[in-house]
């Protein structure tokens, strides 16, 4: 049977004191540190998730702004190209009108020159015809009339 003596009581008290000491100074702080660490890592994890979400949101906003800036730049380029094309058309029309006007003026001058040349040629043709007739016929012809010498 079990004999209760001082050693058994001392052992029970020693084990109980050791458990109390280990619980107070070892297991308690270790568990408390483990819980704090768990809370800190969970907090850091949640904070990093929030930061990551915010970064993703900023990235999306940035990409949207870049997309809008490209659209705006394209619109500006398109409008500028349209202005240049309109200016080109206006310059071409102006050049065409000026060329048409110069051609018209040149044709008028040419018509005047042709008319004056025709008159001159008619006068000279009559003079030459009279000279030829005089040489061939040996008589003067003046304006369609013949005279004998």
From TrEMBL:
Record CDD domains: ATP-synt_Fo_b
Keyword Ribosomal protein tagged: no
InterPro entries listed in its UniProt record: ATP_synth_b/b'su_bac/chlpt, ATP_synthase_B_chain
One cellular component (GO) term of this entry: endomembrane system
Source taxon at top rank: Bacteria
GO molecular function: proton-transporting ATP synthase activity, rotational mechanism; proton-transporting ATPase activity, rotational mechanism
Coiled coil: 45-116
Location in or out of the cell: Cell membrane; Endomembrane system
Keyword vocabulary terms for this entry: ATP synthesis, Cell membrane, CF(0), Coiled coil, Hydrogen ion transport, Ion transport, Membrane, Transmembrane, Transmembrane helix, Transport
Classification via Pfam families: ATP-synt_B
Membrane-topology descriptor: Single-pass membrane protein
Residues spanning the membrane: 6-27
Subunit annotation: F-type ATPases have 2 components, F(1) - the catalytic core - and F(0) - the membrane proton channel. F(1) has five subunits: alpha(3), beta(3), gamma(1), delta(1), epsilon(1). F(0) has three main subunits: a(1), b(2) and c(10-14). The alpha and beta chains form an alternating ring which encloses part of the gamma chain. F(1) is attached to F(0) by a central stalk formed by the gamma and epsilon chains, while a peripheral stalk is formed by the delta and b chains.
Function as written in the Swiss-Prot or TrEMBL entry: Component of the F(0) channel, it forms part of the peripheral stalk, linking F(1) to F(0).
Family listed: Belongs to the ATPase B chain family.
Name listed for the protein in its UniProt record: ATP synthase subunit b
């Amino acid at each position: 049977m079990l004999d209760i003596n001082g050693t058994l009581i001392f052992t029970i008290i020693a084990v109980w004191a050791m458990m109390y000491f280990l619980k107070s100074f070892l297991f308690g702080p270790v568990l408390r540190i483990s819980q704090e660490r768990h809370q800190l890592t969970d907090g850091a994890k949640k904070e990093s998730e929030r930061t990551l979400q915010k970064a993703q949101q900023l990235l999306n906003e940035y990409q949207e702004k870049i997309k809008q800036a490209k659209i705006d730049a394209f619109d500006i380029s398109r409008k500028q190209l349209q202005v240049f094309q309109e200016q080109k058309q206006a310059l071409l029309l102006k050049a065409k009108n000026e060329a048409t006007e110069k051609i018209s003026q040149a044709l008028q001058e040419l018509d005047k020159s042709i008319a004056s040349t025709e008159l001159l040629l008619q006068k000279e043709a009559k003079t030459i015809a009279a000279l030829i007739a005089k040489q061939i016929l040996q008589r003067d012809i003046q304006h369609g009339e013949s005279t004998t010498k």
